[in-house]
Amino acid sequence: MTLSVIIITKNESRHIAECLDSVAFADEIIVVDSGSTDDTCAIAAAKGAKVTQTRDWPGFGPQKNRALDLATQEWVLSIDADERVTPELALAIRSELEHPRADAYKIARLSNFGGRWIRHSGWWPDYVLRLFKRETARFSDAAVHESVQAAQPPAVLDGHFLHYPYADMESLIDKVNRYSSDAAGMMHARGKKVGILGIVGHAAWTFIRIYIIRRGFLDGKEGFILAATAAAGIFFRYGKLMFLNRKSK
């Protein structure tokens, strides 16, 4: 087994040390940083990662492809700085790569919000394609919600990531704002249109889907906050799209 771990970062000093410790079993760790102003890069270098800094931000997909292009080992594991590989998942990865069943693998992700592990709301098991043979896959060019495009259907790997996406409400709101801007820009570039009724309808359906259909109510107060915040994010996304369309006329 030869394995490269790739991580893209910006101001991840809160997370990067534990993330890197969790993938210390890999043959190499690649960190591509897009202008951190904290000590993310210094921590990563001290942990033995190969750190590259970029001056621009092309979006999540292109940035992850930059990291992928720097990988040299046969297999690649893509992980975010706010994720951890559990000991059980590390064992499953090492075992699987001794006798691989496929060229790519989906891995479940268990996320924490407000100190609670979220097991409903569409957050669990949240399979993500993250482990693949280097020559057989690339990331999509999407600025947000990028995905691995594999040549063959993936298998499912035992174990799961631990995911700590939001330190507090402020970080959640900040991410919603940034992602809604990027998503609105992508939709605008594709020529998508929306009106007031569409904005309200998309937001309302998002809340219903997460809180009721996906049983977010079983995640307690945190489930309600996640459903409401997701609905707000959709409202912002389509509202920003409406104003982008108006500005371009």
Can you tell me the number of structural domains? 2
What are the low-pLDDT stretches, counting only 5+ consecutive residues below 50?
none
Spatial gap, N to C terminus: 55 Å
Mean pLDDT: 96
By DSSP (H or I, 4+ residues per run), the number of helices equals 7
Helix content percent band: 40-55%
CATH-level-4 superfamily name of the largest domain: Spore Coat Polysaccharide Biosynthesis Protein SpsA, Chain A
- The total strand number stands at 11
Structural class: alpha/beta
Helix and strand sequence = EHEHEHEEHEEEEEEHHH
Beta-strand percentage range: 15-25%
The gross shape turns out to be globular
Largest sheet, in brief, is: 9 strands, mixed
Radius of gyration: 19 Å
- Write the CATH architecture name of the largest domain: Alpha-Beta Complex
Q: CATH top level of the largest domain?
A: Alpha Beta
Summarize the structure in words.
With 249 residues, this protein is an alpha/beta fold. Helix content is 42%, strand content 23%. The protein folds into 2 domains: 3-163, Alpha-Beta Complex (Spore Coat Polysaccharide Biosynthesis Protein SpsA, Chain A), CATH 3.90.550.10; 169-248, no CATH class. The protein contains 7 helices and 11 strands. The strands form 2 sheets. Strands 1, 2, 3, 4, 5, 6, 7, 8 and 11 form a 9-stranded mixed beta sheet that branches. Strands 9-10 form a two-stranded antiparallel sheet. The mean pLDDT is 96.
Strand and helix layout:
Layout: E1 3-9, H1 16-22, E2 28-33, H2 40-46, E3 50-53, H3 60-70, E4 75-78, E5 83-85, H4 87-98, E6 104-113, E7 116-118, E8 128-133, E9 137-139, E10 148-150, E11 155-163, H5 169-189, H6 196-213, H7 220-248
Parallel strand pairs: 1-2, 1-4, 2-3, 6-11
Antiparallel strand pairs: 4-8, 5-11, 6-7, 6-8, 9-10
